[in-house]
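[READ THE FOLD]
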Amino acid sequence: MRRRAVDFRRPVRRSQDKQTKSRSPISQKSFRNRVTETLNITEEMLSPNSITRQLSDQISLAKAFVVIAKESNNLQFAWELSAQIRNSQVLLSDAAIRRSPLSTGESETAIRDMALLLYQAQQLHYDSATMIMRLKAKIQSLEEQSNAVSEKSSKYGQIAAEEVPKSLYCLGVRLTDGWYKSSTIQRQLTEGRRIAAKLTDNNLYHFCVFSDNILATSVVVNSTALNSDAPEDIVFHLVTDEVNYAPMKAWFSLNSFRGVTVEVQKFEDFSWLNASYVPVLKQLQDSDTQNYYFSGNNDNGRTPIKYRNPKYLSMLNHLRFYIPEVFPELKKVVFLDDDVVVQKDLSPLFSINMNSNVNGAVETCMETFHRYHKYLNYSHPLIRTHFDPDACGWAFGMNIFDLVEWRKRNVTGIYHYWQENNVDRTLWKLGTLPPGLLTFYGLTEPLDPKWHVLGLGYTNVEPELIEKGAVLHFNGNSKPWLKIGMEKYKPLWDKYVDYTNTLMQQCNVH
């Protein structure tokens, strides 16, 4: 009986072995699939009886207690919590790797040890209410630190942007010295008077730049000349201040720009530019305005530094609203900021149909924050009554102005009205764009965006836009002539600077 039993089992065992061996891969794969199907991580974490969920909740709570323990200088307890957190994380990791739920037996010790530590934390008054209060205090402290750092960064960036580099200061001094010593310059100026007729010839292409930066202005003129189809038909009208008048005259007398005609004036010579006519000059005589822009002590520093930049009171900044007075005989002019580079021929701008509008500009309202409500105070009844908050904003820096329509519509008078109503800075705070939006409201003709590409002084710009752009604007603090300029965009500006010029080398301009 025993032998027969043995003989009976052996063949069966062999048959089973063969079947198992031949189907081994399939069986193992099926087994893995069955295990995977039985472990649904989402369901496991949502189940109130899940050991995985219990362990995860303990870890989250323990991490918060670690922060509080460290702040309370209880480093030993913080270390014990951290060690137990690592133990529990190892268990969860192992369960994830093998793709099966944690069992009570393997997790019991970890859950008990962590529960004891969490109970100890409560005895140390690390309860939920205390934890929330401390975390809120920590968050508030971090926010204050972040705001302070941001304010300092903004302040230092603003200071860096306003400072004149030593090399540019040197260039101005050497040019001024040459102006008074060189008879060659004076002779060239005498010859220049022969082309004075060009300055008022409305058959030519007239451009204006208001700036105290010689090198930046030179780049604007040079880039326009080099990319023009007919540079001999271009006239540049440059306006600067008393300090930079002599060096600006000297520079544009010593350098040639492919036949471009260049006129240099200083705004101090404009007899009409006085406090009785110009609201900004009148405001400068006000003590509150002077304190706001030059001392910053009247509101406990609540107003950001960018709103207090004195350049916003500079006449070189506000002359854009007096272009018909500056050039009384011109009919059309293209206004350019001194932080632009021209890389296409701009003569087609003068034949654009303005549809009886005064200002031709590129709109900037692709995003909602570039609409009127971004720049103006709509809680003020004057603003709320007269302007659509969703009206599209546009850019200063490359504008075509129809001066005939400007004079007909008394646009400068509109500008005066809004400046006089903003003496207390309740309509807007920053710069010349807000008064420009008010002044040219309903009088602006949208231009193709390729005419004016912005953002090269503070953000990333799509390469395709840069390639197609006629005028590239380095608006922002990171000007290309400063060390804080954006390196990847500086070559676009550098290509129009002659660094081999003797004066440039003597002043180490690079």
In short: The longest strand covers residues 234-240. The mean pLDDT is 83. The chain has two domains: 41-124, 166-507. The longest helix spans residues 128-162.
